[in-house]
Amino acid sequence: MASILKVNTIQDATNSNTALSIDSSGRVARPVRVGFKIGASTHDQTSNLSGTITQYNNLRTTVGDFNDGNYNTSTCVYTVPVAGVYMTGCHAFSYGTNHIEVFVMQNGTCVGGNQQNGTTNESNYEVATFCTITNCAVGDLLTAHANSSKYHLNTQSSFFYAFLIG
Q1: How many whole angstroms separate alpha carbon 28 and alpha carbon 79?
Q2: Which of these, 29, 80, 103, 152, has the minimum number of CB atoms within 10 Å of its CB?
Q3: Over the stretch 145-160, which tens digit does the pLDDT of each residue have?
Q4: How far apart are CA 129 and CA 54, in angstroms?
Q5: Distance CA 124, CA 72 (A)
Q6: CATH number of the domain that 49 lies in?
Q7: C-alpha span between 102 and 144 (Å, rounded)
């Protein structure tokens, strides 16, 4: 026999924190998100990018849309708090004739990336963007990296993110 459970709010048993809310139209809201998105707070062009993209300029200390508290702005490392499948990626620009490569590491191992070759026009911008889905365990470490001889930080378009999808 089928059953119907009618609730507006689901809370944890210990602290009564709201885990899910359901409105009268059936839309489900999760007030606590697992993940982060961090990006640049200023426009900047810099030479000799090599290493973790979040270690350069204002990407280190600026949190964008959200941070569940597990992205460390000092070390530029996200420590996975909940086991599951995560969507993660990064986005960065190079300018002029410069090649750019971006990639995401999980516990020091590359889980994928993308690259873009520069053009012959010094005033053009090239974008390298990457997104992947990866299975993570509690305590896994996620970092974003980029390599380019010249890169461009853009407040709307240079970022690193990860979030739990299931």
Answers
A1: 27
A2: 29
A3: 776 656 666 666 677 8
A4: 15
A5: 33
A6: 2.60.120.40
A7: 7
Reading the block at residue 37, the tokens are: 């998105």
| Cα angle value 63/85/159 (rounded, 5°) | 25
d(CA 111, CA 115): 14
Q: Which residues pair with 44 in a beta bridge?
A: 153
Show Cβ contacts of residue 24 under 8 Å, excluding neighbours closer than 6 positions.
Answer: none
User: Is 5 inside any structural domain?
Assistant: no
End-to-end alpha carbon distance in the chain? 28
40 assigned to some structural domain: yes
* Sheet (strand 18-22) strand order: 9-11, 18-22, 28-29
DSSP one-letter string for 56-73: SGGGGT-EEEEE-S-EET
Strand 77-79 to strand 125-136: parallel, antiparallel, or no bridges (unpaired)? unpaired
Q: Count how many domains the chain has.
A: 1
The per-residue pLDDT for range 47-97, each reduced to its tens digit, is 455 555 554 433 444 556 678 878 887 788 899 999 999 999 887 776 665
Number of Cβ within 10 Å of residue 137's Cβ equals: 11
CB of 6 closer than 8 Å to CB of 15: no
